[in-house]
Structures are given as C-alpha cells and as structure tokens.
Amino acid sequence: MSRPDPKAATRVGVVGTGVIGGGWAAHFLAKGYDVVAYDPGQGAEDRLRRLIDGAWPALEELGLAPGAAKTRLTFADSLEEACTDVAFIQESGPERLDLKQRLLKDIDAAADPETVIASSTSGYGMTEMQRDCARAERTVVGHPFNPPYLVPLVEVVGGERTAADAVDWACDFYDHAGKSVIRMDAELPGFIANRLQEAIWREALHMVAAGEATVDQIDRSITEGPGLRWALMGPCLTFHLAGGEGGMAHMLDHFGPSLKSPWTRLIAPELTQELRDRMVEGCETQAGERSIADLVAERDRKLIAIMKAREAAS
Amino acid sequence: MSRPDPKAATRVGVVGTGVIGGGWAAHFLAKGYDVVAYDPGQGAEDRLRRLIDGAWPALEELGLAPGAAKTRLTFADSLEEACTDVAFIQESGPERLDLKQRLLKDIDAAADPETVIASSTSGYGMTEMQRDCARAERTVVGHPFNPPYLVPLVEVVGGERTAADAVDWACDFYDHAGKSVIRMDAELPGFIANRLQEAIWREALHMVAAGEATVDQIDRSITEGPGLRWALMGPCLTFHLAGGEGGMAHMLDHFGPSLKSPWTRLIAPELTQELRDRMVEGCETQAGERSIADLVAERDRKLIAIMKAREAAS
C-alpha cells in the first residue's frame, strides 16, 4: 500500500487516549475524520468519550468540518485494529522512553508499511524512540499542546532514521487537519515551545521552593502581565516593541546589560554581534512592512480584544 | 503636608517619558488624573504627545474615566515642577543603577516629604536605588508591563528603608488607578513576572545563538502554543489541567521526571515533598470550588473567545 495524498486522508488511528491522545481524537473528529482509538487502560473508552463530550461544545462553537460527528469514533479492541486501514497514526502513550520505544515498535509492526506514525512525546527525540522500529523511516514527532483540539501548534521533527518525505507528509497532513505546524530541521530535547515553557516552569518551581513567590502570585504575574501579550506576539516581537521606535536594536542596547543580572537562575548567552544581528533581522523579517507604530497599534487593538473576550467569557 | 487618601489623589507626576513613562502618563490620563510629566531629553514632549495620541483610541475603546482628557497633561519645564503639588510620582528613567540612584535622590529632594515615589525599574531592588534618598521611607518599586496603559500588572515592593505604610499606600493607589497589584514581601531581582519572562527570553536567545531555532519559530511556538493559554491561566494552573482529573499531583508524578531532562538550559530544583505539596495546595487554592472538569470547560471557553478575538482584530 502506498502513502495516500495527505489531503485525502479520511481515517486516522489514535493510540493512547489520555488527556493528549483524547484531545487529538476530539480534534480529528471535529475536522471530519474517522477516528479509530485504542488504549489498553481500564475504563479508557469511557474516559475518552467523556473527554470528547466535554470538548464538543467548544468544537461546535469553533465550527465543525462538514460531516464531522462524534459517532465517527471507533474504540478498537486491539492495537492492531487502530493501526490498520488508517492513513495516519498519532501515538500518545505514557511519557517514558522505554514505553515509547516498545509502543512504537508494536505500532510499527502492526501498521501498513507506508503509514506515517507520529508521536506526541513532550520531549524525547525520535532517534531514541524509533530504535526498535523495523520501518523507522516513517516515524516522526508530532508534538501538540494541550488541548490539541484548541491550541493550534504542532512541532514536527524526524529522527536519524526518518525519511524527509515522511516529515513532509506529516507537515502537509497536519496543516490540512487545521494545525499550525513548525517544522524543525534538527532534534532538540523538548523541541522549541516546551523549552521555553520549561524555562518558565523551572524558574517558577525555584521561586516556590525558595519561598520567594506563591503559586497564586506566579500565575497572576503571567495572566495579568506578559501572558496577555504572548497570545498575540511572541517574546521576540514583544521586545521589538519594548525598544520604542528603535525596535529590537535599541532594546538590546538598553536592556542588554540586564542579561548579566540575576533576574532568573538561567544564565544568558553572550550577546555577540552575531546574536544581536540575528535577533534584529528576525524581528525585522517578522515585522515586514509594519512600522513600530503599526505594530504598537496592532498590539493594542488585539490586547483590548483579548482582554474583553477574556472578561466576557468569565 | 500629610499623605492624601490614595483614593482621593487627582494629580500625579511622571518623571521620564520614554516607552514606559509615556505609557504610565497615558494610563493616568485615561483614568482621569491630571498628569505633570518631565523628561530632559531633546524632543521628549513631542514624543510623549505622539505616544499618547497613539494610545488614545485604544483607551477610548476600553472606556475613559469621567473627565479624562489628553489636555490634562502638562509637560513640566523642570524636575521640580513634576514633583510638587502631586499626590504620587512615577519614575521611569533609564535602566541604569547609577542613573536611578541620582534621579531618585533628585526627586526625593524636590518632592513634598510625604509623597510616595515609585520606580518603574525592571529589576533593581529599592534598597540599592534609594541609597542616596533623604526620605527613603516613601520610595517603592512599582514595576509595570508594557504598555502600562493596557497590561494591568504592577509589582510593588519596598527596600530596606521603605516604610510598610508607603507600600500599603502605593498598593491602594494603584488598585484605585485600575492596576492589578502584586505586593511582594521581599526584594527579589527582577521581581516575579520578569524572572519568568527573562527565563523564556534567555532560553530563546540561547536557541538563536546556537542555531537551534529562528526568531520566527520561537515567536510562533508561543503565540500558536502555550502563549494562547497564558492569557487566561498561569503556568501552574495550566499544568494543573495537564494532569487530567488528578490535577497537579498527577502532573508532577507523570512529568516530574522531565525536570531532569535537558529541555531547557535552566536546571530544575529538586522536587521535594514540600515543593510538591506547595504546588498542589497552591493550585487547589486557585481552583477553589471549581473541579478539573469546570476548569477545562472554562479554559476552553476562554481560549475560543481569545482565538476569535485575535482573529477578528487582525
């Protein structure tokens, strides 16, 4: 069996149906796919159906694809059933390397040889996870954020034995399935978003451990502060605006020395000319035709929309 | 002159009118205060008025306080003018310790002896900044986020010589002036939100420096991923939900080992029983009566509202 057109896929396998796998199932159902799910855990089917029932009103409000229905979920009796006659398989088993290795080996053995298999792993590299797969060339990481049926991001990257065309296929498939894809060229522990999130999380844990801040203060400092901005501009473009009309270049001049300050337990890299230029050029590329004033106006408009939406949905 | 009721203040001094100071001026004007601003920089008045003109449509949309008007801005000819006959002074000078020390000394000398003086510093402690102040007991940190006229957070903390009643007064004043206040009990470099933000920023710089990710990938990984959630739930409550029905306790069991993973260059603290209990209790306190299912429904509702608002404002 050859690999189908990624845009023509209609039936996907979901292996592991906890919070993440169940969220993937809800996402694929809402996008109009048939979903065959499998999880060996006791009561897994009930939990999965409860999760999908809980998510469905949100998905209806966002807009279901034509023909999308909860009834298009099949809970399989075996791993094999979830891995055959499907165009794509999303693995979301427990986050332990030995379990991932075994599960991917079993999926690989059960699946049609061309079917692309993606792992939801939060941070393992595919090179180590695909170790025991006979057809490792079609295994990729497809790392989502919780809940996968709402948060658009998926990070896609292969391992040493993964073929580039499998990564291409997964990116095209996810894109068609309504995800926002970041394709990484090289393996990196935690990928990109989790590294950033983990840096925040560890600094937060340090502060709580040291009695410097409470859980409530930490969460409020984000939702009432920088978290409001991060829904609309990432950390780099945010700081591009913090530099005023001089943008990122001025910001690095002005706040660059704070990289030496003990503002987090994470030591900063040396702010070399090369790093500085990459940051400035990256921000200018993102900004495109938009001046700083345009970006400020856009940020303000979106911030207000987000604050009002947050308030209205309370 | 005695200190006025923080709720009865009508006139504030703003010293330093760059991006942050100018943003404060816009905020106070929109909240119906008279603002006396001073900045010695060439062309500062023009830049300030341009900044306020740029921000005003946003502030009108959010809703101006009765009587609020851009015409209630006075640009002072001297530092003294901005520091007298005002109920409160917000300092937002350049972020260099020696300049902060000199500026606060000058403001302290010019201001009525009871007037509370707050510094917008991004991370210096008030103990070091207030070194040369004769009346240091009324100097506090009031650290905002950009833009101060939209992002609600202000972190308030005193230095060694600051009197508790000045910190109280500043918290009450900011609260009345429409800010969301975090009162810190102890000085901490970078306060809380900047430590979290700086951890993300430094990890981002490392990735760019090492060629592991581009500026565009970093920003998209946030705005399409965890950044969407952080506008509505902080990192702790977010992870409380990632644990499924078991909440933070299950999350720490499940993902705790990842604290040892090289997912960021920041080494995590030891996950002791005490830290674990603090995290679990902190999340349970925040959750209050809301079950995990309630929180999931609330998160989904707000995420959808935010995504729709972001889209509509594009």
Write the layout of secondary structure elements.
Two copies of one chain form a homodimer.
Chain A: E1 11-15, H1 19-30, E2 34-38, H2 44-62, E3 73-75, H3 79-83, E4 88-91, H4 97-110, E5 116-119, H5 126-129, E6 139-144, E7 153-158, H6 164-176, E8 180-183, H7 193-209, H8 215-223, H9 226-230, H10 235-242, H11 247-255, H12 273-287, H13 292-312
Parallel strand pairs in A: 1-2, 1-4, 2-3, 4-5, 5-6, 7-8
Antiparallel strand pairs in A: 6-7
Helix pairs in contact in A: 1-2, 10-11, 11-12
Name the features.
homodimer, 314 residues, alpha/beta, Rossmann fold, 2 domains, eight-stranded mixed sheet, 13 helices
Commentary on this structure:
The structure is a homodimer of 314-residue chains. In chain A, helix 1 (19-30) crosses helix 2. With 314 residues, the first copy, chain A, is of the alpha/beta class. The longest helix of chain A has 21 residues, at 292-312. Chain A has an eight-stranded mixed β-sheet with strand order 3-2-1-4-5-6-7-8, with helices on both faces. Chain A folds into two domains: 11-183, NAD(P)-binding Rossmann-like Domain (Rossmann fold, 3-Layer(aba) Sandwich); 225-312, no CATH class. Chain A has helices spanning 19-30, 44-62, 79-83, 97-110, 126-129, 164-176, 193-209, 215-223, 226-230, 235-242, 247-255, 273-287, 292-312; strands at residues 11-15, 34-38, 73-75, 88-91, 116-119, 139-144, 153-158, 180-183. Helices cover 48% and strands 12% of the residues of chain A.
